[in-house]
Design brief:
Blueprint (H helix, E strand, L loop, with lengths): L5 E3 L6 H12 L4 E5 L5 E12 L5 E10 L1 H15 L9 H18 L2 E9 L2 H8 L1 H16 L7 E4 L4 E9 L4 H12 L4 E3 L2 E3 L3 E8 L6 H19 L1
Parallel strand pairs: 1-2
Antiparallel strand pairs: 2-3, 3-4, 5-7, 5-10, 6-7, 8-9
Helix pairs in contact: 4-5
Length: 237
């Protein structure tokens, strides 16, 4: 379905809106967005046909107008659910993959670097076993908020598994920049989380990879960052 432009709309389309609706019909668009007087927006679907005269010219148009706002909202909700984690609202593995590929293409054109941090929470299983899974979920949500604060404009943080997150850092001019972000992540996740009035220790293990030194595609970068995270976790133990 073609997306429409936003046009002002009163209780009924004004003459200018009618002309725009006519253009929509002639261009075979089947939906437009209108802004109402209360600043709300509605999606309008048109179903119309031209009525021709004896000379073959268009005499007038007839048809129906349908408010499809609820359907559009449902489509957006479904699209969001398909690309985002339900617990944290962060991008999921599917959306992350797409953004990694975009970042690599951009880096190849601009001769820059792409950084990746693979983050695994420490001792989350112990929290789940002792305090329950609700407490574990709350820690994941808290950590997600902390990781958001570590991002630059254009960076992405995604949740890709139970206690695993990935930070994507596109457009790095120097490889040293990834170390600075890693320090911010470790500092942000080291503070205890308050769960039901109790302070629960929090920490994470972080591994990194960088394009093009550690890999030329998304799978290679993810694999190397995961390996580095595992090495870091073993060293902490």
């Amino acid at each position: 379905m073609a997306s429409g432009k936003i046009h002002p709309l009163g209780d009924a389309p004004a003459r200018g809106d009618q002309e725009r609706m006519l253009k929509m019909l002639l261009s075979q668009l089947d939906a437009m967005v209108y802004r109402c007087r209360d600043d709300g927006m509605i999606w309008i679907s048109e179903n119309a046909r031209a009525v021709l005269g004896a000379d073959g010219g268009v005499r007038y148009y007839e048809g129906t107008v349908e408010d499809i706002s609820e359907r559009k909202m449902q489509e957006r909700r479904m699209a969001h659910q398909a690309t985002h984690d339900g617990l944290t609202g962060l991008p999921n593995r599917y959306l992350l993959q797409d953004r990694i590929e975009q970042a690599i293409r951009q880096a190849a054109r601009e001769k820059t670097h792409v950084g990746m941090l693979f983050i695994d929470l420490d001792r989350l299983k112990h929290v789940n076993d002792t305090l329950g899974h609700q407490a574990g979920d709350e820690i994941i949500r808290i950590v997600a908020q902390r990781l958001r604060r570590c991002l630059r404009t254009g960076d992405t943080v995604a949740r890709i598994g139970g206690d695993e997150f990935v930070l994507l850092l596109p457009g790095l001019l120097a490889v040293e920049a990834i170390a600075q972000t890693k320090r911010r992540v470790l500092e942000a996740t080291s503070a205890p989380c308050t769960i039901e009035g109790k302070e629960v220790p929090a920490s994470c293990s972080v591994g990194s990879s960088i394009y093009p030194q550690d890999g030329l595609d998304a799978d290679a970068l993810m694999r190397r960052a995961d390996e580095a995270m595992y090495e870091a976790k073993q060293a902490r133990r």
